[in-house]
Amino acid sequence: MNGGSLGLRTGSYGLLQNINRAIAGGEISKSLSNVRKSSTKMLSGIREKERPLPNAWYRYIGCRKFSMLLLIAFALLVFALGSFVVNKDSTSPNVLQRIGTLGIVPYVNGGHHEASQILGEKDKKKDENRFQIPAFKGASVLPFHHPCANFTFPPPPPPTRRRLGPRPCPVCYLPVDQAIASMPSSSSASPVLHNLTYVLNENPIKSEPHGGSDFGGYPSLKQRNDSFDIKESMAVHCGFVKGSKPGHGTGFDFDESDLAELQQFHDIIVASAIFGNYDIIQHPQNISEEAKKNIPFYMFVDEETEAFMKNRSILSSSKWVGLWRIVVIHNVPYSDARRNGKVPKLLLHRIFPNVRYSIWIDGKLQLVVDPYQVLERFLWRQNANFAISRHYRRFDVFVEAEANKAAGKYDNSSIDEQVDFYKKEGLTPYSEAKLPITSDVPEGCVLIKEHIPITNLFTCLWFNEVDRFTSRDQLSFAIVRDKIMTKVDWSINMFLDCERRNFVIQSYHRDLLEQMPPPVPAVVRRPPALPNTRGKTPGKRIPRRGRDRRSGSRRHRKAAASNREQFLLNAV
């Protein structure tokens, strides 16, 4: 209804008498027809004015339900467009993203691979088909009944809750008794190389401009190249070139009592070292009674560290600190404590000639998983004889070299000389062409090793590079590995660094710990005392509002003032 229709209804015929006359005279039919014509004309005029607006919109635009439907449809359209843009941008990353921080190899025994964290769903199936390879060459598939056969990694946390930096990830370990039962009864086969001996030289002479030491024997470049020509029987430089046996007049010397201890047979040992008083001794945790009984833990220290431990009453004449059996080193071969630490790290097979398996951890690390479980997970389950974690961020030697220079790990000229030497030998930046090798840069603070000729040769030649060039063993790892792998069918299990962080906890070096400010004592805040409600009827107080609240405050102040005045009067 509109204004025109209302006017017709209220002012057409006037009084009731006039209406009756019109009905009696037969005029009402004419009037009604005129009314219909005039109203039709007026409505048609209104429609002409409202013609730009469609009838449907005119009828429903004011309806709330219709408006809500429009908003919902618009929201769905925006969501669909956003999903299309995300899927369009989820194209396959370049090679640096594929094999960089997270790597590309599938998680062992799990349905997920590391690339799934950085690849979009659009390329996920394609990359799974392309890179479905074992963790390393020679790895086996677990039988269906194995307790870890169905283990999968949980999905990564959402971006809003993701913690920056490296962190541990879940690892499926067997129970200790099952891990012990999984230990092979005999040694693994060593490909090609069956008999490895070591060069002895009472008077080593440096004949070439490159580095080296009396302890390492100054092998020539020709001897270095010959050592990569794998044969059934070989004799190579491997430290301790002087004296009749390692640790006896060779440099890096042991006490006589310790020499006898180190010659004993053990299935497994755990070893670490602290030189230059550089670290604080870390005590292993979660070690089973079987491991405490059968696996010795050896900690190598120099005389400086020994003196510090005695002054702090950490070390007594018993030579035991917790589970660690302390072995003091005399006549260290290098002035650099970090380079001295490479001797036990890479040459444990020379110090312990009668050991089957060894786990090396740097002095700043704390072992928190039983050694039997670690060996089962990273060696025995994988049919591997050498395992090391890859770097959590870098996988290319050239990038690692630049990072070492930027961090001041070694003088830049020595790093450049080493990298240029490897470049001339054919070392190239890492690429997908190296798969199934997943990285050229290890996180070398943990070594898990079976002592057989081929792994002993690998660590000997790796040590020779550290002795010849810089002590940064991450730079020389790949060149030694690749040269051996081109000659024999052998590989290394380079597992995830987050898995390494699952069984060792990393601490800071002593100098950093001493520079840190002491922790701020926690402030204990006591809850406020409850008001005294004795003699009062419990009940719920209704808070005052506005003027009543202010007036109540004024009354409270007046009452308090009168109480103080009364107290003063009483005192007088």
Architecture overview:
This protein is of the alpha/beta class. The chain is globular and about 100 Å long. The strands form 3 sheets. It has an 8-stranded mixed sheet with strand order 5-6-4-3-7-10-9-11, sandwiched between helices. A two-stranded parallel sheet has the order 1-2. 41% of the residues lie in helices and 10% in strands. It has a domain at 253-514: Spore Coat Polysaccharide Biosynthesis Protein SpsA, Chain A (Alpha-Beta Complex). The protein contains 22 helices and 12 strands. Strand 1 (195-198), helix 9 (221-226) and strand 2 (233-236) form a beta-alpha-beta unit. It has helices at residues 3-11, 16-24, 28-49, 55-60, 64-89, 95-98, 121-130, 176-181, 221-226, 256-262, 289-294, 303-311, 337-346, 348-351, 371-380, 397-406, 412-424, 453-468, 473-485, 497-503, 510-515, 546-571; strands at residues 195-198, 233-236, 266-274, 297-302, 320-321, 324-329, 355-361, 365-367, 386-389, 446-450, 493-495, 504-506. This is Putative tRNA (Met) cytidine acetyltransferase. The chain crosses the membrane at residues 66-86. InterPro entries: TOD1_MUCI70, TOD1_MUCI70_glycTrfase_dom. Residues 537-559 have a biased composition (Basic residues). Keywords: Membrane, Transferase, Transmembrane, Transmembrane helix.
